[in-house]
Every structure is written in C-alpha cells, then in structure tokens.
Design goal:
Blueprint (H helix, E strand, L loop, with lengths): L2 E14 L2 E14 L3 E5 L6 H8 L7 E6 L2 E2 L5 H10 L1 E4 L11 H9 L8 H7 L15 H14 L4 E5 L7 H18 L2 E6 L10 E6 L2 E7 L12
Length: 234
C-alpha cells in the first residue's frame, strides 16, 4: 500500500491571552492508503486538534501535512473549503443531523456539495438502513442516527474518512456495530479510515496505531494481525 497521509513536524499553539497552549508538538506519523488507523490517547492529549488540522478545520502553527501528493497545510482558505467538501468525510461523536430532514434527505444534502457523490439511497442501504429512508432523526435510535451520519460521510465518496469518538454516545452493543461498519469500509472498500478514541481496547482492530500524549506522538505501531471488531471487549 502506498503512503497516503504524512505529518512532518506538525505543531499547533493556541494563544489565550498571554498564555500559549501547545496542543501539538512536533507530531510525525504516516498512514497508508486503505488502512484503518486508530489514534489513541487521554482527553486533552491533542487527538482532536490533530484530526481537525488533517480535516482542514484548523490550521497548523508549523510543519507540513501531505495527503497523497498534495501539501494541504499550504492550502488557502478557499482551497481548504474545497478540500473539506470533496476529499474528506467526517463522523463525529454527536450526529449533527438536520432534524426536519429525513435520513435520505440528510444524506442527499451532503452529496450535493461534492464532485463525485454516491447514490444516497444505496449508501443508506449499505449501512443497513434501507427500511429507514423516510424516517426523521427523532424516529431513529442513536445507533441508527450514527449510521445515517456515516452514510452522509460516505455518500461524498471521500478520499479519507475521519471519525472523532464515533461510538462515544452509544451503548456497548451499538458501538461495536458501528465499529464493525467502519472496519468493513476499510477492508471491503479500501477506504482510508482514521478513528480517534480514548479507548485503548480499540487499537486491536486497527492496521496502524498512533499513541498521543500531552500533544506529542509517543509511538506509531503497525498491527500485522488486526482483530475483528466482534472479538474485542472493553
């Protein structure tokens, strides 16, 4: 597999009054195309900052980030907007669905802003929601809402799927079902998936594990024998 994501000496400092907060310091790692990567660390370790910079929602203070052969850290504001629309799919802990749109309409809305969208109904079917297309978010369980959120991200046909604590608001059984779906997307579709979590048990399902602590990447590990999600317990 070819190298797809590269962080080179990435740092991010926030200025709050007279105080400098170093959210990331000299972060270095790579992710190959088609891998499922888990970035793990405690709250406040810098995981979300890292994901936001990679997703074009925040900028770095120093260093370089490449996606394929493009240096996204050198993008203008306009280029970052295009990058977020066309290249990145986002899945968050909270689903951020529009309450007065059906599941199908929520996914169709996202598909309208990108270049090469997938069929919204087909994507919802692929995540097991073929019977829920006409339901509004309030009529869906938490797990179903998260599946809609994943379908919305997938319908953009993104180069990279970024997931910020995607099971944090779900019960154990539903959370495992969502993680299996993400693992299947990587295995079956060859999609590059990055999940950030504080739960170290999830590292067993990953092809690559990046550990973050106090704003620093402390280790990067290749997992030669990822475990199916069904076999993980936490």
């Amino acid at each position: 597999m070819r190298e797809f994501v590269r962080f080179e000496h990435v740092s991010k400092t926030y200025h709050v009054g007279e105080v400098d907060i170093h959210a990331l310091q000299d972060a270095n790692f790579t992710v190959n195309e088609g891998e499922l990567c888990v970035i793990v660390g405690p709250s406040g370790a810098g995981k979300t900052t890292l994901l936001n910079i990679l997703g074009g929602m925040d900028t770095l203070t120093s260093g370089k980030i490449l996606l394929g052969d493009k240096e996204i850290s050198a993008y203008t504001t306009r280029q970052l907007t295009t990058y977020r629309r066309h290249d990145i799919g986002f899945v968050f802990q909270f689903y951020n669905l529009i309450p007065n749109l059906t599941a199908l309409e929520n996914v169709e809305l996202a598909a309208q802003i990108c270049q090469h969208p997938l069929d919204a109904a087909q994507v919802l079917t692929s995540v097991g929601l073929e019977q829920r297309l006409a339901n509004f978010p309030a009529q869906l369980s938490g797990g179903e809402q998260q599946r809609v959120a994943i379908a919305r991200a997938l319908a953009k046909n993104p180069k990279l799927l970024l997931c910020d604590e995607p099971t944090g608001a779900l019960d154990y059984t539903t959370g495992k079902a969502i993680l299996k779906l993400l693992q299947d997307m990587s295995r079956q579709k060859g999609m590059t998936v990055i999940i950030i979590t504080h739960n170290s048990a999830l590292t067993a399902m990953a092809d690559r594990v990046i550990r973050v602590k106090n704003g620093t990447v402390v280790s990067e590990e290749i997992n030669t024998s990822p475990v199916p999600v069904e076999e993980i317990e936490w």
